[in-house]
Amino acid sequence: MSFRCDYTSSNVPDEILGMVSLHDSINVDVLSMGAMAGTGLSDHAAEDKGMIKNHWMWRFVVKRPGTLTGQIQFGFNLTETPSVPSDQAQYARSSDRPFDSDSGDPGAFSTRSIGSDEGARFDDVSSINKPPDVLPTSGEHAASDTPSAVDIRSALGGVIQQPSRGPRVPGTFGIFVRPRAEASWSHRFTRSFRLAPGTTFGQLFRSVTSRGMEPFCFQQVGLARFGCRDGISQFAAAWLADGLMVDGICVEKPPTHIYDLLCWRYSRPAIVGEVTTSDEDEAEEGAPRIRGFRSSRSYIDRAIWPEGYVHVEHPKLLFTQRPDA
Question: Cα 141 from chain centroid?
């Protein structure tokens, strides 16, 4: 079996579903997708200002035949649009929730030398602030023309009015099998969570797919697409309810619940030498870039869920939109 394949929820093979977690754990990775559009900054400069796009994915490490290890990375991604060169999410600043440079760090401070990031194929759909209410023309992106999203039920018994500020953009349950165990070079934050002993990828997969989460859509406002972290939260909620995820608290220090981690944006600003503020003051050619760690409070934007889906709410999950808003 090749360990470099891409699947969706409709065609993942049984041999992948039957794989067992190597250490009875699962990781969540926060990937950097580069600078927010419209900032005029390079990716390095955007890192220094905390103005990068994040995208969240789950990473399930398994043992491959023999003594090798591999990973199954999965989550909701934007459906690729052939007519659009890049489906990268776009962002704009907003005055209704100023950028919070608070370094209330839910993770430990660390330093590392950043090399060239590997070419990540994932598109970021989490947001730091709400973008302006400017919808794209038909030529900018082929978003869904279907009617407004229906209200859904909350697991607490109420009704959730789904986002209606812009069109829906179809998402795909992407499953990416790779011959490595480590997180992508493009990751900016990662945490591990305990699973019940012997948990298979198939158990995690069926826990999600049995709840009617598809078809999943991102909400679009202007050129921005939102909903990534909402999807991550509902995966975790399903596994906690089914006893597959032990307690939702990361094994690293400080011990923090996945719902708390989802309410932050993560970047790695330069901490040695002058902080990069423009494209013109990059480090000398060949010099390593030593970067630290930074987190900024960032509320969760809601995705658009199919009719009949029962959405899990929790006091720790801080959404930009209240359930009844």
Answer: 21
Q: Are 227 and 303 in contact (CB under 8 A)?
A: yes
pLDDT in tens, 107-119: 332 322 222 222 2
**What are 157-189's pLDDT values in tens digits?**
899 989 877 788 999 999 999 999 999 888 889
Distance of CA 35 to the CA centre of its chain: 16
Answer yes or no: are the C-beta atoms of 59 and 29 closer than 8 Å: yes
* Angle (CA) 112 50 52, round 5°: 90
pLDDT above 70: residue 306: yes
What global pTM score does this model have?
0.76
CA quadruple 252, 256, 261, 266: dihedral, nearest 10:
-40
Instruction: Return the half-sphere exposure (C-beta side, CA atoms, 13 A cut-off) of residue 118.
Output: 9
Contacts of 259 (CB under 8 A, 6+ apart): 233, 236, 248, 314, 316, 317
Comparing CA positions, the residue from 140, 150, 124 lying closest to residue 226 is 124
CB 91 within 8 A of CB 224: yes
- 36, 51, 123, 188, 279 from 41: Cα distances, Å: 8, 9, 18, 18, 6
Tokens, residue 11: 């065609």
Cα distance between residue 311 and residue 237, in whole Å: 9
Cis peptide before 306 (omega within 30 of 0): no
Within 8 A by CB and 6+ apart from 197, the residues are 24
CA dist 56 and 230 (Å) reads 10
Q: Is residue 312 within 8 Å of 319, Cβ to Cβ?
A: no
**What number of CA atoms fall less than 13 Å from residue 150's CA on the CB side?**
8
**Cis (ω within 30 of 0) for the bond into 132?**
no
Instruction: For the chain, give the percent of residues with pLDDT over 70.
Output: 69
H or E segment at 220? Answer: strand 217-221
Give dist(CA 293, CA 273) in Å, integer.
Answer: 15
Residue with tokens 């600003």: 269
Strands 310-311 and 152-154: parallel
